[in-house]
Amino acid sequence: MIPTLNPKELFSKYRPEIVEAIEKVIDSGVYLMGEELSGFEKEFADFLEIQNVVGVGSGTDALTLSLKAIGIRSDEDVIVPDNAYPTAFGVAGSGAHARFCDVEKDTLTISAKTIESVLTTKTKAIVVVHLYGMPVLMDEIINLARRLNIYVIEDCAQAVGAKIGNKYVGTFGDIGCFSFYPTKNLSTMGDGGAVVTNDTKIADRIRRLRMYGEDIRYHSLESSTHSRLEEIQAAILRVKLQYLRDEIKERQAMGLRYREALKQENLIPGLLTKGLTHGYHLFVVRSNNRDRLKEKLEAEGIMSLIHYPQPLHFQPAFQKIGHMTYSTRHFPVSENASKQILSLPFYPGLPVETQDKVLETVRLWI
């Protein structure tokens, strides 16, 4: 079978260096909050050209802690794209209300226009999701947020390495949140995440929130749980970060190869916007015959996934949020997309002949 994603392949070429890094941590006797974490935080900050990186337990925790750090209240709203499934759980964990909005048809990402349609006086923050690795155009969203004094948080879980101009996503808003889940472009062998920001006050508060609200050990300024990026995972990330630029280039070359082989109407987006550098975490196509396409691919031994099969307002967990009832709401672009999208096998190391088999089968049945 040809897998859609292959975390084993993402680690295999660096196995000797990763094993050496893990053994170094084992021998050190320090397994939390040590030199590997601080080293990764500095190196990732240098990579992104940003002042502060705070390693945390997961991408979901990164969102939750970011919202808590800006002082979110339980009666305030956070705008979230309706088609970004995991993002809503990070918002819910903060105690705030997730307020869903629809997305643009061509990109399946939010815009200033879709955000404005759901703004209220209770809106505290906007979570911009760079879905599939495709950067969202940030200028209009930033301008809107500044005018209304609203925070902008970038969810870069699928977009590490993506750029707008010469600047990496995650560095445009007030805060950027990253996930290092095993299948991501920059990945751990477990859970992991990071918060990045140029606001030192926000960074300092997140550092407290990730460790019982402590400013120094055993002295808590506020009540909090813990969310720590472990030393072994940080050591793995330090190895993989050295090769991230090369892996992104490989993903981009593969992504362009896929795009050239398929019709424009089946691509997301149809055309790549000049000045945007796609991170290519996933390669997602759309088809009015998605379910048949999925079945035909599987018959040829080609696995595929749906990111994501239901928009958020269809999820039982989010039928009612605070004063909002979502069971009666309608987000047509997100709803239609959930019936059309399919993620194809796509990861560094996927052989060219395997890529050809995938593309030939897709062209036949899409």
Describe this structure in words.
With 366 residues, the chain is of the alpha/beta class. The protein has two domains: 7-100 and 108-241, 3-Layer(aba) Sandwich (Aspartate Aminotransferase, domain 2), CATH 3.40.640; 244-365, Aspartate Aminotransferase, domain 1 (Alpha-Beta Complex). The chain contains 13 helices and 16 strands. The strands form five sheets. A seven-stranded mixed beta sheet has the order 1-9-8-5-4-2-3, with helices on both faces. It has a three-stranded antiparallel beta sheet with strand order 7-6-12, with no helix packed on it. A two-stranded antiparallel sheet has the order 10-11. Helix 3 (35-48) packs parallel to helix 9 (231-241) and helix 4 crosses helix 8. The model has no long low-confidence stretch (mean pLDDT 96).
Write a concise keyword list for the protein shown above:
single chain; 366 residues; alpha/beta; Aspartate Aminotransferase, domain 2; 7-stranded mixed β-sheet
CATH superfamily of the largest domain: Type I PLP-dependent aspartate aminotransferase-like (Major domain)
- Strands side by side in the biggest sheet: 1-9-8-5-4-2-3
Q: What is the CATH C-level name of the largest domain?
A: Alpha Beta
Tally of helical segments: 13
Count of distinct strands: 16
Unreliable segments (pLDDT under 50, ≥5 consecutive)?
Answer: none
SSE sequence, one letter per element: HHHEHEHEHEHEEEEEHEEHHEEHEEHEH
Q: Percent range for helical residues?
A: 25-40%
Using the coordinates shown, work out and report the CATH topology of the largest domain: Aspartate Aminotransferase, domain 2
CATH architecture of the largest domain: 3-Layer(aba) Sandwich
Biggest sheet, in brief? 7 strands, mixed
* Mean pLDDT across residues: 96
Strand content: 15-25%
N-to-C terminal Cα separation, in Å? 20 Å
Shape: globular
As for the number of domains, it is 2
